[in-house]
Amino acid sequence: MISDRKIFANAIDPEETRVAVVEGGRLNEVFVERMWDRQRSGDIYKARVDSVLPGMNAAFLNLGEGRNAFLYLEDARGSVVKQNADLLVQVTKTARKGKGARVTTRLSLPGRFLVLVPGGGETGVSRRIPEERREPLRSLAREIRPDGFGVIVRTAAEGVDREALEMDLENLVQQWKGIVDTAREQDAPCLIYQDLGLVGRILRDEPFGAVDEIVVDSEEEYAQILSFLERFPSGWTPPEVSLYRGNIPLFEFWGIEKELVSALDRKVWLESGAYLVIDQTEALTVIDVNTGKYTGGGDPRNTILKTNLESAREIARQLRLRALGGIVVIDFIDMEDEEDQRELLGTLRDLFRKDRARARVFGVTGLGLVELTRKRARADIRSSFTRGCPFCGGTGVVPREESVALSVKRFIRKVILSGRPEALLIELHPSVASFVAENFLHSWEEEFGTRLFLRPVHDSPWDKYRLEAQGVLEQVEHRISLLEKRVEVGIVHRTDPS
Questions:
Q1: Contact indicator for 38, 66 with CB cutoff of 8 Å
Q2: Which end of the chain is more exposed for a tag (fewer CB within 10 A), N or C?
Q3: pLDDT tens digits along 38-62
Q4: Spatial contact of 18 and 31, defined as CB atoms under 8 Å apart
């Protein structure tokens, strides 16, 4: 049983890195980054203005890769925005759902304890730091802030001494000088600066002492994590870091894979027997609370309050886990007593104070609905792992080809580690088979040192696959020839033996 707060990093595959944050044995957040993802939040580009739209008070910028980025002119203070002009911009929102990234000319560089704002002149302190401790940190930051820069003190700086802050600030200033030099030498459009990798960014944003253990399945990432933790101040006890070498994939071994699949479900059952129904749309997320199998005791008011409070805790978790942002409307079970309503709203506000994405609870509407907003900082889990279903006219979703492909790869690794066969024959949906054959098959054979054969099966479910044969190469090839004779039309994808 997992307890407290732990980070699990599935980084063994170069195509995809997944990071799970587990609290009290339950999956609370999941992050994913793929090798073909572009225009990540925090990256800095030397961009070229493609077009200016005065009616929208915005401009579209060519970043040199992916879709054009969107710049609100109010986010370009101090910059001249005209067609074909070059601008140094930073991604504030990654591209999602067919929309390009959002960028700003107000650049910032996050460190472990401070954020450096080139061209700024202000000194700020995180609002998550208790009010009585903000002013001493603000005074210290003013003393060390260099001319021509603004500084923001991050939550992680609480309790850190002056030397650690000065060291962090010096690193950021040197980083900025490197960005300026690179931008001067390069022609637009191009990428100038890339933020830390996924695991590094998550660790950088975690407060001191918040993480007890980090488990990673990649030796390279393991070494990078240890190097990153060495830069932390002396006297701080870092989390335990371990390298996972098991035959069963990391997420599967710790039960995270199963929870990840459940996080895509529309219905969420609670321990009491009540349940939530979560519906996502482009504009907002609607959550319905139902008593379900929970009947409580003899007091209906107490039953309703307990169900709503339990639901509130799970809703806060689900919003973090699913990375849901924007407007959220919750239909709790009706409560006529105003005291109960105040207790529910107070519980919700307390829960969201721990959320790294800024959230605001507005109250109960005339229709008895609770409204809140949550900052949309990254792609939600549904858009990261699913796509519109090609078999139902877009009314449903299925896992993305790359998600199924990487699931196949993890399955292949498990089989190979168990028996070291010379060859494998996998049956799967034709579209997924073609995707794997075109993008990954050759590199997977080199990585595993095993011949891999993919047999398209037309009546196979989109996201299902099975091991048809394994063993020495001649046996698997014989099995393939038998299968081809039985089927009038059938193609087995395989790499060139040479």
A1: yes
A2: C
A3: 778 899 999 999 999 998 999 999 9
A4: yes
